[in-house]
Design brief:
This protein is an alpha/beta fold. The protein is built from 10 helices and 14 strands. The chain has 2 domains: about 140 residues, 3-Layer(aba) Sandwich (Rossmann fold), CATH 3.40.50.620; about 120 residues, Riboflavin kinase-like (Elongation Factor Tu (Ef-tu), domain 3, Beta Barrel). Helix 7 runs antiparallel to helix 8. The longest helix is centred in the last third of the chain and has 22 residues.
Length: about 290
């Protein structure tokens, strides 16, 4: 997979799919099918046009590229989105981006894709341009729900990662460097690898989850550890079942499979340890069932 910023694009004929594609979910995959190049935007346009309403993202550019590579896409072209780009007309986008720079012969979009200043560019506008063939893909509906990045974000924010994964087509994951914590998990007999949530990226609702991490089943706590008074903020704490080693400084990927319970305050460390044992058993059972 080649990741290219738009100003660095080399001219060649391309079959392009255009969109934000946050999460590269099952609806996105229908749009991407048949494309050799995906065109996306960074940062999310809403963060420029209406910063107060900008969503937390499901995927980084690097993770998006990885998912696209699995679909057979050759190149990810990233458009640096800023106020100047947002001010360009829909016609300019077709002339300068799709034709002059990308050499698009085929353009694939979702039916709700809009582009150009004040979102004046519509699927009909693209279809009216005879320099390339335009494919407009209807929104995908599963079990009576439109598959969308915003819907998936809502599921994850509510802790419903199992259902979010069905719409994504792959497990939702969080990744980052393993940070030093207060070593409280080690004192309790459950040493954890700790990740600090990345700014701008979505994190599941507080609670305990069955996950996979570093090739192991994992019981993962997301939250602020209400049983103890700590100086730490929100943290993702992963207990890797059967793992004995040092992960500090390494990048850890945590795949969320199912929420086991919400975050709770316990009356004593002993009560917390008893619950953690049950969480570990539950996490192992979920991972075993997932295969």
């Amino acid at each position: 997979m080649k990741i290219t910023s738009l100003p660095d694009v080399e001219p060649r004929p391309r079959r392009v799919a255009v969109g934000m594609f946050d999460g590269v979910h099952r609806g996105h995959r229908a749009v991407i099918e048949g494309a050799d190049t995906v065109v996306t935007f960074d940062p999310h346009p809403t963060s420029v046009l209406a910063p107060a309403t900008a969503p937390k993202l499901l995927t980084t550019v690097a993770r998006k590229a990885e998912l696209l590579a699995d679909l057979g896409v050759r190149e990810l072209v990233v458009i640096p989105f800023d106020a100047d780009f947002a001010a360009q007309s829909a016609q300019w986008f077709m002339d300068e981006v799709l034709v002059a720079r990308l050499g698009a012969t085929h353009v694939s979009i979702g039916e709700n894709f809009r582009f150009g200043q004040r979102a004046q560019g519509t699927p009909a506008v693209l279809q009216g341009d005879e320099r390339f063939e335009t494919r407009v893909v209807p929104l995908l509906e599963l079990d009576g729900e439109i598959v969308s990045s915003s819907h998936i974000r809502g599921l994850i924010l509510g802790g419903a990662v199992e259902y979010a994964n069905e719409l994504l087509g792959v497990p939702f994951l969080v990744e980052g460097p393993v940070e030093h914590g207060e070593k409280r998990g080690r004192e309790l007999g459950f040493p954890t690898a700790n990740l600090v949530p990345r700014p701008g990226m979505i994190v599941p609702a507080f609670g305990v989850y069955a996950c996979r991490a570093h090739g192991h089943a994992a019981a993962v706590s997301v939250g602020v550890r209400p049983t103890f008074v700590t100086g730490l903020g929100e943290l993702i704490e992963a207990y890797l079942i059967g793992f004995d080693g040092d992960l500090y400084g390494q990048t850890l990927r945590v795949e969320f499979l199912r929420r086991l319970r919400g975050e709770r305050r316990f009356a004593s460390a002993e009560a917390l340890i008893a619950q953690m044992k049950r969480d570990v058993e539950g996490a192992q059972a979920v991972v075993d069932a997932a295969g």
